[in-house]
Amino acid sequence: MSGGTVDRVVVVGNGIAGLTAADSLREAGFDGELTVVGDEPHPAYSRPALSKALLLDGDDLSSHQLAPVGHGARELLGVRARGLDLDRRLVTLDDGTALPYDRVVLATGSRARRLSDLPEELTLRGLDDALSLRGRLVDKPPVVVVGGGPLGMEIASGCLASGCEVTLVSQGAPLTLQLGPYLADVFVRAALGQGLTIVETELARIERRDGGARVVLDEGTVLESEIIVSAVGDVPNTEWLADTGLAPKGAVPVDSRGLVRHDVAAVGDLAAFPTPYGLRRMPFWTSAIEQAKVAARALLHGDDAPPLRFQPYFWTEQFGLSLKAVGHLPLEGEPTYVDGEPGGGPALMRWSREDGTGVAAALNHRVPIPRLRRMSQAAA
Predict the structure, then answer these.
(1) CATH fold match for the domains 8-111+234-304 and 114-230
(2) What span, in angstroms and rounded, lies between the C-alpha atoms of 166 and 194?
(3) How far apart are CA 190 and CA 18, in angstroms?
(4) What is the pLDDT of residues 200-215, one digit of tens each?
């Protein structure tokens, strides 16, 4: 082990990154005192399910649930981290508790970026957000969704499937910035075919009106609706690290093993990992899992632990389409069809880049993820 005996580890964050880090510490042989801090009162759950299946679940509401934890940690839920003392090795909580550590995992994730401070502006980031929105959709009210990325489109899809009239406000064509024009067009056509109204604009703001809020576009168009949901990105939860200097630009830069220093790891949505395109946050579910596995071992074994070798994996389900993609997005140009053909039916596609990288994607195709990874590598 590097840097002395490791008897106490604190994991700050109880999302999938924190959960995986705790599990991986045990799997790597750590049998000491393990403490997990979570700002939500709920056990760890599947965040991707919130904007996909949960809005449409039946009465059991189980799509977000994960298996019971097995790491045996002391869990402190419903409490936030307030500060980190790197010299004294202490995590301070907002209830005044101070947790000493030999190693610490920073996994406090991110929160929804907002366009206003109005309570009428809804976001979908946590379980309580999803359950609240689900309850409000029962009466099938009209909905305006601001944000044309994957989350905004998934929310719009769920609201539309619930029987609501839905308008999506997007800065340019939806999904283009995230997926590239080819795949974005496939999803936009499917969305329009199911009745989604798409409004493209350069800028949108949410402002108060009598009895609620409204969306105002840059050209002066005003959209009023019973429900307004924004999905315009996220903000890393790093304010509690302000006195440490660990997050100079909002995110926490780490090395290829997820370490900030030998006794501090950062994983998940708040971490910026090295990629072929520079330091980047990779706010994907599988990315958080892979980062946490690597960082947990690095905290215990230092340079003897393997670095992260990760191909980004992205998936979305919306408007009757399911997409799984391995490789760095967005994509330019048209793909080579490995299976299927253009038109929105089941297909396996592959893109090759001049820099030697490749991307493989499956649209409504039951392909194992390992095969997608091999296809991505073969595209190089």
Answers:
(1) yes
(2) 10
(3) 36
(4) 999 999 999 887 899 9
